[in-house]
Amino acid sequence: MTQLPAPGATPAAPPPAEPLPTTTPARPRWRETLGLLARNPTAAVSATVLVLIVLVAVFDETLAPYGPNEQDPSLQLQPPSRDHPFGTDEFGRDVFSRVILGAGTSLRVGFLSVAFALVVGTLIGLVAGYYGRWVDDTLMRLMDVLFAFPAVLLAIAIVAIRGAGPANAILAIGIVYVPIFARVTRASVLGVREEVYVRASRSVGASDWRLITRHVLPNAAPPIIVQTSVSLAFAVLAEAALSFLGLGPRRPNPSWGLMLADGRGFIEQAWWYAVFPGLAIVVTVLCFNLLGDGLRDVLDPRQRTLMAGGGR
Amino acid sequence: MTSPAEQEVLVSARGLEVHFPVRSGGALRRTTGALRAVDGVDLDVYRGETLGLVGESGCGKSTLGNALLRLVPPTGGTVTFDGLDVTAMGRKQLRELRRRAGMVFQDPFASLDPRRTVAQTVSEPLEVHGLHPGRQARAARVRELLELVGLDAGVAARYPHEFSGGQRQRVGIARALAGEPDFLVCDEAIASLDVSVQAQVLNLLRRLQRQLGLTLLFISHDLSAVRHVSDRIAVMYLGRVVEVGPAAAVAAEPQMPYARALLSAVPVPHPELERSRQRIVLRGDVPSPARVPSGCRFRTRCPDVFEPCPDVDPVLQPVGSAPGHLAACHLHGVVGAPVQRAEPGAPVGAGDPAS
Amino acid sequence: MTAPLLEVEDLRVDLRTPRGTAHVVNGLSYTVGPGETVAVVGESGSGKSVSVLALLGLLPERTATVTGRALLQGEDLLTMAPERLRRVRGPGVGMVFQDPMTSLNPVLTVGRQLTEGLRAHGPVSKAAARARAVELLGEVGLPDPGRAVDRYPHELSGGMRQRVVIAMALANSPALLVADEATTALDVTVQAQIIDLVERLQAEQGTGVIWITHDLGVVAGIADRVLVMYGGRCVEDGTVDDVLERPVHPYTRGLLGALPDLATADDADLATIPGTPPAPTDLPAGCVFWPRCPVRGDARCETEQPPLAVVGAGGGELPHRAATWCAEGEAS
């Protein structure tokens, strides 16, 4: 180990000229990010609420006091009570249980569609931004075309072609968000690609693949992460909108959008029917948005230095 | 020092050109001209020497440094590295070139990936070229490299933002040395550092050069620093090397009017000297590299411009008393290619060193 | 000796930062006479730029605390009402910064920006202002000023832009010109042009100049007097010959030793100053330089702050002073 064949590399090492940093312990980047995020109250609360919502969606069957389609014809459109904290619907189903059970559907559609958009969009943006020229032109014009359609219209068209249902809703919403991710990624990659450290890596012989995976993507990631959070909010809304229009998940399975659509007809007799699913949507969307804002601050290196009190 | 003629050439450029297309705006992006960043450079770098490359911003010195390593593709001429044609290299040979030639960049705050530790940065060349395989061997080599550049090996796990500019530049140098290169290009490597830190890095580079037998191309606009580290100095103007020679000769007796003006403009920290000095203040600005003057490219600002300057493009020719001191200037005899004009005039007789 | 143009007395600047209070300037006193050039020298973080920004009221009020006195022709800049200070800045003090683009508005023509400065400080007709703008551009050596006046900043080269900024700074014939690293971003030949220009205008108009730079070579060429700053303090001042040729403070010596010198090139290693400058939030007790000082010859170094005291031969009008405990034994 000590006999490394480095020509002339037996240095008469000069005394270290400067005191070396000893105060800040080396911490992985993501842990630092989490630490900073915890110090941002809005983002921390949002993240906590979102974790709770996800937990509710995961343990929905344990948590829901009633089944999704458990009907009690004697209890139609009952206002919130001790037995039914969110009241009941026109079939006497428990709205509270259905909100809990609908969380899974709504979040699944949200997460899966954004995951689809994230993977496809980031890939397209990465290739376009990194390789530039005609690759960039072709891909981005394609994205422009996709972007030019109003989002909901596009989703409706896709569902109309492929039929309603959760899988198609996911695909539809996902495709709608691909151009956004492609654009955000491309813009970020264009900036990072010109960084000196990327040139430096190339100068030591790193391959394109290595440059992209080790340097470009990690450094281009912050805006993409923020976009993911914001898009999740929109995707939950879009799921609600599609369901509302009857193009998403089908009855009688509960989803927040579907409940909102059904509750709308009873808004004058039974406000709770539409309000509670609506509230669930609002809280989720708000939390994703606030988390996105928090991430934007935390992932900005300048903010980071300021908040961590470290750096230069 | 042995005379240049007896020395072995490591890197050589002949008629090297890097022209960037100038495109018009609009959707069609037609190519309307060329930005001649490097425009016919002849330059040899001898094994084991430090060659200083000076010139003002926009003269193409940085592009030249990049083109020698094919980090910017040359559009004309040839470059050879240890006898191999760099412009014709295939994938494998190019990778080997990347190992054998390193680069140190200007801004130490920008040249290190903020998301990677010092160890990751320094070991990248090792991974890329499969040197010192195995985690432990690589870690040991990284420690060795850090100590070589005067850093404590204990800093390997830290991130760049925890370091000062001088320390970061040392990390950058360690990375450049990781592949055990023969040739190191330092592109304005001290320009963003404070004076006292510049001195540390200059000393380090000199020590490494001697210790490892490196060949160094030291690109800088700081003539004092270049004079301090270099064995030879090359002066660039508007994409062309216009004077080259032993450092002492070029610094003390520059032969080409531009080199003279450049050297006379360098301030030195001696009030007496500064007061008595006759500074040559040049007229106007450097022409755009998209519109290079005909003949001698310095003629539009030259205080000594005369008849043949617009018509004959001067080539490097021996000047002064020191061996290996060359300048491209008609004052030392009109040598060069006559400018091709639309109507065949009678250009001044070329290839006739009058003196 | 004529009355000084600018008299700075015990200037102190504290900046509130997330990491605590930064003592950026700690008791700076100097004067600038008419036609005199005072160079303020230091490395990054020495407080040299902040010290002049403070004089001109250009520090953010929310985070900066400025104390002391700064009399410009008898009027204290530090206690001046903001409105009055704004008026003083044009005709009283001209400013040139490192990056000319920070002083130029990219969407206005050069002429527009010059005339705005002229017309803000007095009733001048549009045509007269334009004529004066062309004249000014000619004075600062811009080729073809009649056409340059209608150009936008991005159409000019860096050196030309800096000349426009100097023209703007000189538009109202200020008594004092502050140049903060004004030539640092420029090439040496352009730097030579700019220095030439400033010296000429100074000779013509008797402008006092504060030239802030890290480049000791430029200092040697342009300054009458030099003030070396370190850790927010003046560690040495005196005539340019005294400070550069007979430096006393170990820091000044270190700085000069670290400089590769075109005039006296040799093969020896450059001297270096070990360590890094102190953080202004955490200045050492005693002599501000002691943690990096190669001499440290006195017991008081680490505990007692040395005063700025006359060193070497004679006081005279421009005494050579240094703030160090090692002066007695070391001064040549």
TrEMBL record, chain A:
GO cellular component terms listed in the entry, alphabetical order: plasma membrane
ATP-binding found in the keyword field: no
Record-linked InterPro entries: BP-dependent_transpt_permease, MetI-like, MetI-like_sf, OppC_N
Key word Phosphoprotein present: no
A Pfam entry, by short name: BPD_transp_1
Biased composition regions of type Low complexity, renumbered to the chain: 1-11
Span list, region Disordered: 1-27
Key words of the record: Cell membrane, Membrane, Transmembrane, Transmembrane helix, Transport
PANTHER family, sorted: D,D-DIPEPTIDE TRANSPORT SYSTEM PERMEASE PROTEIN DDPC-RELATED, OLIGOPEPTIDE TRANSPORT SYSTEM PERMEASE PROTEIN APPC
Stated name of the protein: Peptide/nickel transport system permease protein
UniProtKB/TrEMBL annotation, chain B:
Protein name per the record: Peptide/nickel transport system ATP-binding protein/oligopeptide transport system ATP-binding protein
All residue ranges annotated as the ABC transporter domain in the record: 22-263
Gene Ontology terms, MF aspect: ATP binding; ATP hydrolysis activity
PROSITE patterns given in the database record: ABC_TRANSPORTER_1, ABC_TRANSPORTER_2
Pfam hit, one: ABC_tran
Single GO biological process annotation from the record: peptide transport
Family: Belongs to the ABC transporter superfamily.
Originating organism: Geodermatophilus aquaeductus
InterPro entries: AAA+_ATPase (IPR003593), ABC_transp_ATP-bind (IPR050319), ABC_transporter-like_ATP-bd (IPR003439), ABC_transporter-like_CS (IPR017871), Oligopep_ABC_C (IPR013563), P-loop_NTPase (IPR027417)
Record's keyword terms, sorted: ATP-binding, Nucleotide-binding, Transport
Automatic annotation (TrEMBL), chain C:
Domain ABC transporter span(s) in chain numbering: 6-256
Primary localisation category: membrane
Membrane topology: Peripheral membrane protein
Any one of the GO BP annotations: peptide transport
Subcellular location: Cell membrane
Keywords of the record: ATP-binding, Cell membrane, Membrane, Nucleotide-binding, Transport
Organism domain of life: Bacteria
Annotated Gene3D superfamilies: P-loop containing nucleotide triphosphate hydrolases (3.40.50.300)
GO cellular component, one term: plasma membrane
Family statement drawn from the similarity comment of this UniProt entry: Belongs to the ABC transporter superfamily.
Protein name per its UniProtKB record: Peptide/nickel transport system ATP-binding protein
Species the sequence originates in: Geodermatophilus aquaeductus
